[in-house]
Amino acid sequence: METSAKSSASSFAGVRRASSAWAVRDWYHAKLPGGNDPDLSSVKGAMNRDGTFSRVRRGGAWCDPGWPFRSAFRQRFEPERRADHIGFRVVGVLPGPVTF
To answer: Which of 18, 25, 62, 92 is the most exposed place for a label (fewest CB within 10 A)?
Structure first.
């Protein structure tokens, strides 16, 4: 059964990476510097009112409409929270060309 749309790679080599779970990794920053792609994975953003910090939630999940699946969509998520649609993605690099 085909579960994702057939498409070519984006300019960032992203192919068919939509997932059934949100991915939470980087610390949340309300504003990112424009024009570049900084590695802010170890730099915490602004502190929340309760003294905690938030992570970035990306990717959409099985329970969401299609619009959150865009790779640019970011949402704040506290690491202490748990849900059945929040997880991690596994991405591997295959040795050689792949055709679909």
So the answer is: 92
Strands 86-87 and 22-27, by their bridges, are: parallel
**What is the per-residue pLDDT across 17-55, written as a single tens digit (0 to 9) for each?**
555 556 666 777 777 666 566 666 667 777 888 888 888
What residues contact 68, with CB distance under 8 A and at least 6 apart?
Answer: 59, 60, 61, 75
User: How far apart, in whole angstroms, are the C-alpha atoms of residue 26 and residue 7?
Assistant: 27
Q: What are phi and psi of 22, to 5 degrees?
A: -70, 150
96: left (phi over 0), alpha (psi -120 to 50) or beta: left
Alpha-carbon span 6 to 17, nearest angstrom: 11
Give CA–CA dist 46/99, Å, rounded: 43
What is the reported pTM? 0.44
The HSE-up count of residue 48 (CA atoms within 13 Å, CB side) is 12
